[in-house]
Amino acid sequence: MDANQLDQYLERCRQQVNRCLEHWLQQQNGIAPRLAEAMRYATLNGGKRVRPVLAYAAAAAVGGDPVRADDVAAALEMVHSYSLVHDDLPAMDNDALRRGQPTCHIAFDEATAILAGDALQCLAFEVIARSPVSMADGTRLQLIRLLAGNSGTRGMAGGQALDLEAEGAALNLQQLELIHQHKTGCLIRASVAMGALTHPQVSARQLEALDRYAQAVGLAFQVQDDILDVVGETAQLGKHQGADRALKKVTYPDLLGLDQARDFARELSNQAVAALADFGAQAEPLRALATYIVVRTH
């Protein structure tokens, strides 16, 4: 899959998950229209949609129909969007720019942003529970368990807590990797596993190989984020360049140097591709994504 084909694939996936997000978000007006507006703002104001794309690509890689992954993809993006809203709050990273737009607490207010994040998290689980896609109850429960476990104290939220505690501290590579395996990596691992599980015939062997892929891709994604915090431009990034350094966060370029950090990202990308050795052409989008993640500029 060349760069042009990947761009087309990414755009198709974005449009597909955005339609699903619109479907669920338009049902949220209810008793609090301003809250619903903030939820839409936080979710539909751009974004790369990496986690939904990984879910779609994993479903295809195991021989499934990516359409069956629509609600899983939407739920993953809701959890990711809620995490960004909360990360940007003054009590956390105190950012004013996200996806090239004012952050949710700037566009609305702090209390509304907190509630929008809370509501998006709840909606993500409702989406999986209510999904009209036919799936066994055991699979539905497995999807909910994966999303919860990888989002909570043993996953993304736990990683964010470690990240906050580490601000201004001296870390080694092992400690930094532990933070990012959880803060960024866990939801990426969940994305790949959940997408694959929407195919009823997925095998345990396929899931194991896909998890090796996801672990490498998840860490590579964060290494590249760290690199972009040094060399990227605010206009391209959609968030303030140098934000991590301003918060005195240790990054991979700090510990390895910029050139070695780039080498490490490429090594992780190669590990991800190697994990797919037993998959055929249906896994080509996953292979292309492993490369894209470490060459992207935002």
Notes on the structure:
The protein has 298 residues and is mainly alpha-helical. The protein has one domain: Farnesyl Diphosphate Synthase. 70% of the residues lie in helices and 1% in strands. It contains 15 helices and 2 strands. Strand 1 and strand 2 form a beta hairpin. It is globular. It starts with a helix and ends with a helix. The mean pLDDT is 92.
Spell out the helices and strands N to C: HHHHEEHHHHHHHHHHH
Instruction: Specify the CATH class.
Output: Mainly Alpha
Shape, please?
globular
C-alpha end-to-end distance: 21 Å
Task: Give the averaged pLDDT, no decimals.
Answer: 92
Number of strands: 2
Helix content: over 70%
Q: Nutshell version of this structure?
A:
The chain has helices at 3-25, 33-44, 50-61, 70-87, 104-107, 110-130, 137-151, 156-165, 173-197, 204-231, 234-237, 243-246, 252-256, 258-274, 284-295; strands at 97-98, 101-102. It is mainly α and 298 residues long. It has one domain (3-295): Farnesyl Diphosphate Synthase (Orthogonal Bundle), CATH 1.10.600.10.
